[in-house]
Design a protein that fits this description.
The protein is mainly alpha-helical. The chain has 2 domains: 147 residues, no CATH class; 333 residues, Neurolysin, domain 3, CATH 1.10.1370. The protein has 20 helices and 3 strands. A 3-stranded mixed β-sheet has the order 1-3-2, with helices on both faces. Strand 2 and strand 3 form a beta hairpin. Helix 5 packs antiparallel against helix 6 and helix 16 crosses helix 20. The termini are far apart.
């Protein structure tokens, strides 16, 4: 067995991922703590780190070590052994990374760092024209990256980029899932809107002090199992989770006096991501076995906690009392039914991260279609606001009043995350199927929520999903846990079961 080659391969890979964790921390700082005057210097820091990381992961010696490990039949005999899984995933990343020239990697890192800053400015002023040149720069750079990666005869540039987020995801397969799902969701929304009753909207009238919200939401994250000795929470323009190590996981949320329940949902969402990061085996940190398997599976964790836990009646049978302790007279008049119905109100709206479960995936479909057209060149960046607004009218039946609540609301394109958006819907599909299995394995799970005890769900996820890192491919992991390939029926069952009774539909 070529243990010396494998040991050297892992040592080199850990060295590269250590640098990557430093870049992650700098990115977190840029979005939370860094003064605006630091952006030019930060962009150079990010470019330098990107170049150093790229140099390490594409070093010819890594290729030699991979070949030596792959030739050892004993080392890779069991495809799911520690060694075989690490070698497989390092090979996948190495083959992609070696296709990119170092100067392109550095230019992408520097440009996206600047673009994120300019996006935040443009969003604050609700002026797409300020961000447009940066979007055009990013599109040019990432089209070049897609060309370096290459794509098959029946594929397209978008596919080359999406592979980096969800192995095997292709635009045509996404379209094949999205088209019938969109029809089902639009039918459901139509039925709900014409139902015989309307859920209570009492929670929409609340206005709660931001300092009290800031003190409260970490308590819910802690109740979920998020370990604040290994993590922290801060405000940011766009909520996110940044994990540099299982012992240092940063999550963010955002607050508004009239949107407490959105702040709570965002916190539970990002804490779900954080639980995945904290649940990865620390002894494997720096290797694929210590890394999340895919963005879609990562999203399943955040959406599960935000929606399948946070929008459930059992959760609110516990949580409302906690809310009343924190906010007193401002919330004491609310009933469990009013909060539960308010959390599950379906209302086609403008903002993706505040969307209800029934309409959320329609937001993703708009972004996927626009992103695909931008990457292929079928849509010019200058026409993005018009096309965004047109699709929102077609899919959600609403008019977009300004750029901030339109095409500038998400950070992703400024960060160069092309190929990312469908992982959100994939995450919803995974979450529904996994949660059905969790309920099957733990019939008293909802009863534990009523007691404010979320440890059974966290432990189940730790054991069945988090502990494996990237040992299995995403689709394989889903089937191993649930006994079935990924399918849309669990999500549709969940939405119909939860929402139709509230609307008499």
């Amino acid at each position: 067995m070529t243990t010396d080659a494998y040991d050297e391969l892992i040592k080199r890979w850990k060295d590269a991922t250590l640098l990557a964790s430093s870049a992650s921390l700098l990115s977190w700082d840029q979005q939370t703590m860094m003064p605006p005057g630091g952006i030019e210097h930060r962009s150079r820091q990010m470019a330098q780190l990107a170049g150093l990381i790229h140099e390490r992961v594409t070093h010819p010696r890594v290729g030699e070590l991979l070949a030596e490990c792959e030739s050892d039949s004993e080392l890779t005999a069991d495809p799911h052994s520690d060694a075989a899984a690490n070698v497989r995933e390092i090979r996948r990343e190495y083959d992609r990374d070696t296709k990119l020239p170092a100067e392109l990697v550095e230019e992408m890192a520097q440009t996206t760092s600047l673009a994120e800053h300019e996006w935040a400015e443009a969003r604050a002023k609700s002026d797409f024209s300020l961000f447009r040149p940066w979007l055009e720069k990013n599109l040019e750079l990432f089209r070049r990256a897609a060309e370096c990666y290459g794509w098959g005869p029946d594929e397209e540039p978008w596919d080359a980029l999406a592979e980096g987020y969800e192995p095997g995801m292709r635009a045509r397969s996404v379209e094949a899932v999205f088209t019938p799902l969109r029809d089902d969701l639009q039918d459901l929304v139509s039925d709900l809107m014409s139902g015989s009753r309307k859920p209570s909207t009492a929670i929409a009238a609340l206005s709660l002090p931001i300092d009290a919200q800031t003190a409260f939401v970490p308590k819910i994250a802690e109740a979920m199992g998020f370990d604040f000795s290994r993590g922290r929470i801060d405000p940011s323009v766009h909520p996110f989770c940044s994990g540099s190590h299982p012992g240092d996981v940063r999550i963010t949320t955002r607050y508004a006096e009239d949107k407490f329940f959105d702040a709570l949902g965002s916190t539970m969402h990002e804490a779900g991501h954080g639980l995945y990061e904290q649940g990865l085996p620390p002894e494997n940190n720096g290797t694929p076995l210590g890394s999340a398997v895919s963005l879609g599976m990562h999203e399943s964790q955040s959406r599960m906690w935000e929606n399948f836990v946070g929008r459930s009646r059992p959760f609110w049978q516990w949580c409302l009392a906690e809310v009343n302790k924190a906010f007193g007279d401002a919330t004491s008049h609310l009933t469990v039914d009013e909060v539960y119905e308010g959390m599950n109100t379906v209302r086609p709206d403008l903002i993706r991260v505040e969307a209800d479960e029934a309409t959320y995936n329609l937001h993703i479909m708009v972004r996927f279609e626009l992103e695909r057209a931008l990457m292929s060149g079928d849509l010019d960046a200058a026409d993005l606001p018009h096309e965004w607004n047109r699709r929102y009218k077609e899919y959600l039946g609403i008019d977009v009043p300004d750029d901030a609540r339109g095409c500038l609301q998400d950070v992703h394109w400024s960060a160069g995350l092309f190929g990312y958006f469908p992982t959100y819907t994939l995450g919803n599909l995974y979450a529904a199927q996994l949660f059905e299995k969790a309920l099957e394995d733990m019939p008293d799970l909802y009863a534990s929520f009523e007691r404010g005890d979320f440890s059974p769900l966290k432990a189940w996820l730790n054991t069945n999903l988090h502990a494996h890192g990237s040992r299995y491919l995403p689709a394989e992991l889903c089937e191993r846990i649930t006994g079935k390939p990924l399918e849309p029926e669990p999500l549709l069952r969940h939405l119909n079961t939860q929402l139709r009774p509230l609307y008499g539909a």
